[in-house]
Amino acid sequence: MTAAYIHNRIPNSRVSTSPLECLFGIKPSPNELYPFGARAIVHVPKDYRDKLDERGNECFLLGFPKAGSGWMFYSPKYKRMIQSTSAVFPEYQSLSVKEPLERAEVEGALEKQPDRSELDALVCQIKLVLGGEPTKEIAETELKAIADLPVNQEHMLPNTIKSALSGADSSSWRKAAEYELKKFESLGVWEPVRPYKGLKALGARWVFTIKRMPDGSIDKFRARYVAKGFNQVMGTDCNETYAPTASLNTLRMLLSIAQTKNYPMASFDISSAYLYSPIEEEVYVQPPVKIVPEWKGKIMRLKKAMYGTQQAACCWWKFFSRKMMAFGFTASELEPSLYYCKRGEEFVVIWLHVDDGFAMGSSPKVLDDLHAAIATEMEVKWSTKVEKLVGINISTSPDSIQLNQSLLMDQIIKDYPRTAYPRRSTLPEGALELNTDAAVETTAYRSTLGSLIANPSEAHWEALDILVGYLKRTKDLGLVMKGGNGLLQLWSDANWGGEHERSTSGYLIKHCGNSIAWGARRQTVVVLSTCAAEYIALSEGSQQLAQLHNLLIDIDHVMPQEICCDNKAAILIAGDKASKKKTRYLSRAFYFINDFIRQYNIKIQWTDTHNQAADIFTKRLGPNLVEKALIQIGVTGTGHNQGREC
């Protein structure tokens, strides 16, 4: 095609004009001709990018298309061929046809041609053969090699129904869209009505995704018709919008209970959960006429909470709660998405995060009964082998449970635009000595590496390289639960006088020796001593301990508590065994720890700094101390030497 394209734009010996000009009267432009492999920035259409994505994609020129205008490019990012009419070639300026170039200028331009070493891999894949075969056979070989290049669809999810129905997986996306509309019909989500003057209907769009198995393989293509709820007006077509979800700390605590007591577990997923919940307000939505043309000119009145509406999550939570109450469950006051039911010696606990749930029971029979009860009301995907929940991979064995997010790590590493090399140790001393010219703010967000986007430099990119390299090195590590003592244990620590003169608090909570909750934060006040910093850390950690203790009361699994701290002065003040003279300037809220210890008669004991499990949450540690801390927390890998990878 490239040879034919050029031939039609070159004059021959019989006529002084080119075939293109003879046939169409159009003079050929040399600005359309570039050498094979020329680097280009190709415009990415709106259908294939989000609002904040890059609008240009670096590609390399392959030639010209069989049909249509423009060029054919190879995209290293997507590993596929792209046809486009919107491209810029940065290394090649537009050729001037008015003033011919001098020979010296031409030779100089040839010497300054860009290095195209990046095309080596592409040329090897195309397998160019120079001589020895007829031109036709060479062209067919190139065409076959290019057609066989792997296509990565992960980043090419369609953004519109038009692009979905015209792309490579059009049949799969159409089936997914038709399945979604059948679900609407079976659940009575809406009804068509004739529009009238003054009626305001929300726009809607299709959202496409690919659901994957725990090993990363494709499970199914998913299409969801979503309303543009940002156009809703509070008080007119929506009122309540808040919907609670259960926390990951609670999930880890339930997993620890199940592992320690050997209780049966199950995970479930409610298919199209929002579509089951009735909607109270009067809401109208534009129909998907691309899939159902006969709905053109009509408006759909919602009878159920459609995805995208502002009240959808709230309607779903209310609907599910009503069903659980009807089944005999009681919702926790602390976490309304945690449900508990006890009848005699039998009990069931349900943890719900939107439409993903976890169930734990005293016997397999009670879980089977729960499954049957939910299945009568909703379409549920139920599994007695818990493998994945809210993006966390879960591996179970007779004596342990392991949690990791290796698939998420792989995706982060794959999307990172730079090369990040795995590190064998923790961050070097100077890696975190970063600064920006922006004013320092006290919010939690700006205390993290992400805050440095305010004014990034190469030093910040290098720090991010180290972070992603660390993820690459430790992606196979996971949190292992094996059980141990029968205590709910808090480890509290602080690093006095850190960055910006604010101390850092850190805590770790263990249930029966299994780590279930942890945290680190910069303290909100400037303290005058190590004792005060440790005392504030004790107060903040004990608040988290109290929350988990109250949840254990709700599900009738109360156990003794213990607090470990490495500062004797803070221990004495918290236990009302020393004067508070040097901590009276602190806010009254920090004295919560004293009342908490008295109320529940909690044992608070001193631990050596070298055995402090929360030490890693307050300061930078060397490789050996990090390895020791990970063992204390319970973070290990599949290999025998994974601990040293940190």
TrEMBL record:
Residues 189-419 form the Reverse transcriptase Ty1/copia-type domain. Residues 39-98 form the Retroviral polymerase SH3-like domain. InterPro entries: DNA/RNA_pol_sf (IPR043502), RVT_2 (IPR013103), SH3_retrovirus (IPR057670). It comes from Puccinia coronata f. sp. avenae. SUPFAM superfamilies: DNA/RNA polymerases. Pfam families: RVT_2, SH3_retrovirus. This is Uncharacterized protein.
